[in-house]
Design goal:
The chain is α/β, with parallel strands linked by helices. The protein has one domain: LmbE-like (Rossmann fold). 42% of the residues lie in helices and 20% in strands. The chain has seven helices and nine strands, in the order βαβαβαβββααββααβ. The chain has helices at 15-29, 53-71, 90-103, 127-143, 151-155, 184-192, 201-219, and strands at residues 5-10, 33-40, 75-81, 107-111, 117-118, 123-124, 165-169, 176-179, 224-231. The chain has a seven-stranded mixed beta sheet with strand order 3-2-1-4-7-9-8, sandwiched between helices. Strands 5-6 form a two-stranded antiparallel sheet. A hairpin with a 4-residue loop joins strand 5 (117-118) and strand 6 (123-124). The radius of gyration is 17 Å and the shape is globular. The protein binds zinc ion.
Length: 233
């Protein structure tokens, strides 16, 4: 992974830390330049009656920045769309395509664009997660690849870019497991930075550990993360 560029795109601060930070930290340790792109301002997820949108957004960006330091991220980009109102429209796709052209990642990580809900786990995927992942997939292919899609990018000196692989963070789909045993402690430390989101962090960490251990058994290691990898030729 030395010198490889990786871009991980999530809707909210904490999304990528839950889904892929063990793998991201591993790649960073191996010499990759890893970036996050967070599409929303994270301004809605609070039950505190005294919390405001502005204050929460500030807190969550700070929490993500602290987690980024733990993981060895090169930089975190924020697009600042309003939390819960993210649309996978052409504006969002264009913004993501622009970042792709700027940093030229060979691997883009995002959430699973096909995941709406799980009957098995009684779980509905957040609307922002769906929007961020659909927009990211479309930005990788075909939007960032083609010269004529955004002539304004060319005027800004940005050339098209071919993303080699998209890694979708698996919920109930998997075609690839990554051994994160050596970076699991960093993953937990990164997740623990998102204090504003959880009243019972111990319980959250217990669930993260159970999931990583489950995939670890399948992979024959202690802890693993699961993905669906798609190679783009
Ligand atoms: Zn989220």
């Amino acid at each position: 992974m030395k010198k490889k560029v990786v871009l991980a795109v999530g809707a909210h601060p904490d999304d990528i830390d839950f889904g892929a930070s063990g793998t991201i930290a591993k790649w960073a340790e191996e010499g990759a330049n890893c970036y996050y792109l967070i599409c929303t301002d994270g301004s809605r997820g609070s039950t505190d009656p005294k919390m405001t949108h502005k204050k929460l957004s500030r807190i969550r960006k700070k929490e993500q920045a602290e987690a980024g330091k733990v993981l060895g991220l090169k930089k975190i980009f924020f697009l600042n769309h309003t939390d819960t109102q993210l649309d996978s429209d052409f504006t969002l796709k264009k913004d993501i395509a622009k970042i792709i052209k700027m940093i030229k990642p060979s691997i883009v990580v995002t959430m699973d664009p096909t995941f709406y809900y799980s009957e098995k786990f009684n779980f509905i995927n957040h609307t922002d997660h769906r929007s961020a992942s659909v927009a990211t997939m479309d930005a990788c292919y075909p939007l960032a690849r083609d010269r004529l899609t955004f002539p304004e990018h060319e005027e800004e000196g940005l050339s098209p870019h071919h993303v080699e692989e998209i890694w979708f963070i698996g919920f109930d789909k998997t075609n690839l497991l990554v051994d994160i045993t050596d970076t699991f402690a960093k993953k937990i430390e990164a997740i623990a930075m998102h204090k504003s989101q959880f009243d019972d962090m111990k319980h959250v960490i217990k669930r993260v550990e159970e999931r990583a251990r489950y995939f670890g058994i399948v992979k024959s290691c202690k802890y693993a993360e699961n993905f669906v990898r798609v190679e783009l030729f």
